[in-house]
Specification:
Structural class: alpha+beta
Strand order of the largest sheet: 1-2-3-4-5
Distance between the termini: 49 Å
Number of helices: 4
Helix content: 25-40%
CATH class: Alpha Beta
Shape: globular
Strand content: 15-25%
CATH architecture: 3-Layer(aba) Sandwich
Length: 144
């Protein structure tokens, strides 16, 4: 079963998300999800198995330029995570489908995502579910 998350599900989302975004603080993630889900510009979906949350996807509308797109807003997959033991069962694709439906319902004609250049598992997933690579860039920064 897949459920669209509500603000009351922020703790569940944070528990799953911390396994992917390990550099974050769980309490801060929970607050971020609560705020994100209350603004109407984002959605999260939770996959359950046997009543337990095992996966989630986060998407939102981006109104700024999104690499490789021609329209605005663009639906954007911000993150998708499936717990160990449940991977390679099509759950990430199911969650992505829910995100795409949500984006279309919110006026999007395009959907985009990204991954780090060395994240080959994510790259394979994106290509397998119909994304096409738009560009590769290396971003730089320095302190002033």
């Amino acid at each position: 079963m897949i459920k669209r998350a509500e603000t009351t599900d922020a703790g569940i989302l944070a528990t799953l998300a911390i396994k992917m975004w390990t550099e974050h603080d769980p309490a801060e993630l929970e607050d971020e999800f609560r705020e994100l889900l209350s603004n109407g510009e984002a959605a999260c979906f939770i996959k359950y198995s046997g009543g337990a949350p095992i996966a989630f996807a986060q998407c939102q509308l981006r109104h700024d330029y999104v690499e490789g797109t021609d329209s605005s807003p663009v639906g954007y997959l911000e993150g998708v995570f499936v717990s160990e033991g449940y991977r390679r069962m099509g759950y990430a694709a199911e969650l992505l489908s829910e995100c795409e439906k949500w984006a279309k319902e919110n006026g999007c004609a395009e959907f985009a995502s990204d991954c780090e250049p060395d994240n080959t598992e994510s790259l394979r997933f994106h290509l397998a579910v119909g994304f096409e690579e738009a560009n590769r860039i290396i971003c730089f920064r320095k302190e002033l």
